[in-house]
Amino acid sequence: MSDKISNAPSCADPFDPDSISLSAALARIEERVVPVHACERLPIRECLDRVNNEAVKSPHDVPPLPNSAMDGFALAIDSLAQGTVTELDEIGTAFAGTPFTGSCEAGQCVRIMTGALIPEGTDAVIMQEQVEVTDAGKIRVDADHQVGENIRQAGEDIAKGETVIDAGARLNPADLGVLASLGIAQLQVKRKPVVAFFSTGDELVSIGEPLEPGKIHDSNRYSLHGMLSSLAVDIIDLGVVKDEPKAMREVLEKASLQADLIISTGGVSVGEADFIKPALADLGTTEFWKIAIKPGRPLTFGQIEASIFMGLPGNPVAVMVTFSQFVVPAIHALAGAIPRRPALFRARALDPMRKKPGRYEFQRGIAILDDNGEWQVSKTGKQGSGILTSMSRANCFIVLPDDNTGVEAGDEVKIQFFDWSL
Ligand code: AMP
Ligand code: MG
């Protein structure tokens, strides 16, 4: 037996020279994940949040032809007298969807509705609020108008041939509208990645099972399910797995047959890594990483057959932090999406925060906008990595970078609003 005290990685350790930085871990993940290959052709309504496979180019101009941006009167600017008011005859009406078919000559104008095609012979639309209608029905217009006024030009939104949606873009609701405006009914998107997950721990019982002394309810699978539900993935919940190599091996084998990504929680901290290690060593290639973040320091990353494996810590807050920082980017990489980084906002800290340099910390905060339009952020009480209510009460992470050595009340900090789909 060794006379030394074990030095195994733990969430509680301070700065460790062996640990890798958050950005290095992220870079390794994105480097190693191979995007899914298969695609499917779907009606555009079903493409929300899916990853576009090939750049979409516009088959025509949008709008296809010049049309009116206002309700008013279409006329030729040339037909207006300089420096005075001109009286014009109204010769008809152009409706959205029902164009005016005649031609407009000098001294004439056409009543026009928003979205109606610009009649032949006209080059401006005068807002109806800016004209005067005489008792005799003449339209009086002053000289203060320009060619092109209130006209939406053809191709002003999208020119024919222009790329409107890049390959690798995740489709948002506006993209669906843009596709519809181009008359595109279906789109080829990458298939959804399949994500399987399970919890590990002899102490865990599922909801509905009795809570014997020493047992706790498994909460991680529920937080994971919630976070995964914000993403375009197919989910397989593999339940709770006992802390034994055989059970672990079986679940990993099963998962690797079905999933592109396998996520486990627990069993990667002090003393416990050993029960995962042999199972993983047999089945695939895996690395145990110490990442310079808190909470969430130990993380396992590897490959089992064609599946990516990510072993998250067991502590419920660490699960959510590592999910947001590493699993979400891994899922987007798997899905073939262009990577996005979360937006950080400046905020004034209302509470002091203790912090050791050398690692990133993700404290849980409640940010509110003050009367001057500045974000103010307070901590959600106790910040232990087991205190899940610190997450449920929060709306953001307070992100304290490596070099931060602590925060005084009033200091500026960065916050990252929760968005599990980023
Ligand atoms: P571990 O990494 O397995 O040592 O777990 C660290 C801590 O997180 C322990 O206190 C576990 O009881 C707790 N924990 C692990 N998994 C879960 C889970 N699925 N739900 C709630 N707590 C968990
Ligand atoms: Mg455990």
Could you give a short description of this structure?
By secondary structure, the chain is α/β, with parallel strands linked by helices.
Fold and architecture overview:
The radius of gyration is 31 Å and the shape is elongated. Strand 23 and strand 24 (375-379) form a beta hairpin. It has four domains: 22-38 and 192-335, MoaB/Mog-like domain (Molybdenum Cofactor Biosythetic Enzyme, Chain A, 3-Layer(aba) Sandwich); 43-61 and 163-190, Molybdopterin biosynthesis moea protein, domain 2; 67-152, Molybdopterin biosynthesis moea protein, domain 3 (Molybdopterin biosynthesis moeA protein, domain 3), CATH 2.170.190; 345-417, MoeA, C-terminal, domain IV (Beta-clip, Beta Barrel). It is an alpha/beta fold and 422 residues long. It has helices at 22-32, 173-181, 220-228, 245-258, 273-283, 316-334, 389-392; strands spanning 39-43, 56-57, 67-68, 72-75, 86-94, 108-112, 124-127, 132-133, 139-141, 151-152, 163-165, 186-190, 194-200, 204-205, 216-217, 234-241, 261-265, 284-290, 293-294, 298-304, 307-312, 345-349, 360-369, 375-379, 396-400, 412-417. The structure holds adenosine monophosphate and magnesium ion (MG). Residues 199, 201, 203-204, 216, 218-220, 265-269, 272, 313-316, 386 line the site of adenosine monophosphate (AMP).
